[in-house]
Amino acid sequence: MAKKYNLRAKLATAVLISIASILHVVEGMVPPLPIPGAKLGLANIASLIGLRTLDFGSAVVISLARCFIGSLFGSGLFGPTFYLSLAGSLSSALMMGLASKIKGIGNNNVFVSVVGAITHSTAQITVASFLLQHSGIWFYLPFLLGLSTITGVFIGFVCEKLLGYLPAAIDLKQHSKN
Question: Where are the domains of the chain?
Fold first, then answer.
C-alpha cells in the first residue's frame, strides 16, 4: 500500500504542478488589477488543494516548482520578478501549512488562503524593499493587504468548491489512513 500511495502522491503532485504552472501563465494574460503588480493568485489554488489532499511538503513543492516553471515562461529565471515570486510563493506555502494546523479554524480553506495571500504580499514587499534599496515601498503594503484579503477569500472559496467536486478516490490523505 505504501508504494501505491507514494506513486499516487507523486502523480498527483505532478498534475498539480502542471495546473499551477498553467494558471500562473494564464494569470499573466489577464488585464491588471487596479493595484500595480497585484494578481488574483490563481496558481495558489493548486497549492491549497495539494495541502488539503496530499500534505504540507507537496504543497511547498507545488509552489516552488510553479515559481520556477512560471519564470521560465514569463519574465525569465533569476530576475527581480523571479525573486519576488519565489519569496511570495515559499512564504505563502509555509504559512498556509502552519495556518492549517490551528485548531478550530485550520480546516477552513478561506482562512488558510487569506493567511497565504497576506503572507505572499508581505514577503514580496520585503524583497522589493531590499531590491530597490528604498523603504518607501512599504507605503504600498496596506493597499496590497486589502486586495490580498479579497483575493484570498476568492481563492479559498474556489478551493472549497473544487474540493467538494473531487472524488474521494483522489484524497490521498484518506488513503494513507487505510
Answer: 2-177
